[in-house]
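Sequence only, no structure available. Ideas?
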Amino acid sequence: MILKHTYKIKCSFKSLITALLAAVIVYFATESGYLMLDSDQIVTPMKGGAMFPVTPKKISECQVFSGKWIFDNISYPLYKEEECGYISDVMACGKYGRPDKDYQQWRWQPHHCDLPRFNATAMLEKLRDKRMVFVGDSMNRGQWVSMVCMVEKAIEPGLKQVVDEGDNLITFIAKEFNASIEFYWSPFLVESNCDDPMSTPPNHIVRTQAIEKHGRRWSDADVLVFDSYLWWRMPSIEVLWGAFDTCDGVYKRVTMIRAYEMALRTWSDWLELRINPNKTRLFFMTMSPTHVWAEEWGGINGESCYGETGIIEEEGYRGRGTIPGMMRAVESAIDELKRRGLEVQIVNITQLTEYRKDAHPSIYRKHWGIPTPELISDPHNYSDCLHWCLPGVPDVWNELLYAYLIHA
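Reply:
I predicted one. Tokens follow.
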């Protein structure tokens, strides 16, 4: 009889402990926004704090680029602007006086699955003894800064540093993991007269058949993340057959799309010859939309992204700054590479970023030169509606990249 009662007490005690543990787990899940139950089940918060399990598909089987933005001021931002010392002054919108922070607190929600919660330690473990290089223009630089801010909080002080090579390459080193996250400036991917990041020639010239000068700097990388769009935005561009330091080169103006296709062909040929597909993961970020003309989303004609604090809610919205022909050129080059045995994952950030007219620096950034009184009187005329504040949209681009790296 005593044994029977003892057994009941033990059972009750075990039930109590189980209930308490469950309560603690739900509490922390609510605080963090997501909870991994096991390798294939996530608990996500619903309105009012209720939880329900979602079984995510393999990331390659989920349409992660189709979805909507959800305001989430509990889980976001993933880091604080003032706590990440790597944010440059052109992205530090809070530092330069932006009064609101809502742009930092949006989560991308795919329609039929959930993105895995970003885990800085898991990302660093994935990169242990590896080299990750972002190659491209200022959009990729912003994404590089975002990635550094997302992982650096998981690294002890004294075990991380940034090394500026001074020749297009800047490197964040996580010493404990023997890992590097790098950015290489190459706005056209191929060689150009814009390869000096501190110089902006008025007339852009590209050598669409030359990439080796750049490629040799990242040929041994384990993860390569490319982008090239912003500097191509013109009806035509001058192409050089020959070298910049000789006088026998042939110059010809070529339509932008044709020159872009030529550059992508050189890029893809180089990848096929120089990249080991058993070692290196390859990604291409699609174009980042601009929000220069407010009339496109129903705003006032002549205004811009300045003063915008809400997102565009029209599903499928596309501004005229997005060029479908460039998207098709990228897809065609990558499809051809796939037929030749090399896989490049397109990370299609374009549509989800179209909705984010609220997240540009506009006037809240460092400006190279003092704005004139005329500009100050009309901030729409000097607002930066191309780049992005941090924390912000590039963090979501990196969440997508993380999903492909960790859950492919």
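The first helix runs from residue 2 to 32.
Hope that gets you unstuck.
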